Amino acid sequence: MGRLLDRLLTRSEAHDVEVEGDGYMLVARPGQGDGFNALVREAAARSGEDFVVFTTPDRPHVYSRMFVLPLPPMA
Fold first, then answer.
1. pLDDT at position 75, please?
2. Distance CA 70, CA 33 (A)
3. 3-class DSSP state for residue 14?
4. By CB atoms within 10 Å of each CB, which of 17, 32, 48, 60 scores lowest?
5. Averaged over 4-32, what is the pLDDT?
6. pLDDT in the model for residue 74
7. Domain boundaries of the chain, sorted by first residue
8. Running DSSP on this structure, what letter comes out for residue 74?
9. Does domain 3-70 have CATH number 3.30.1360?
10. Per-residue pLDDT averaged across 49-70, rounded?
11. Cα(47)–Cα(54) distance, integer angstroms
């Protein structure tokens, strides 16, 4: 896994991680909206490398959840 994917899938001060099917739901921790929003923007910008992300904003540019789907390694 890439370093960003490793970071996404590791619980942090900004988010919790829940396993859902073949992917992971990242959930913002209370009071950590700014840090989580920054992580969502970074992940969305790099989506397609080692993983894809699906974001649903609560309002423009504000997120409380993000689904991360790791991609299989390319041969």
1. 62
2. 24
3. coil
4. 60
5. 96
6. 72
7. 3-70
8. P
9. yes
10. 93
11. 9
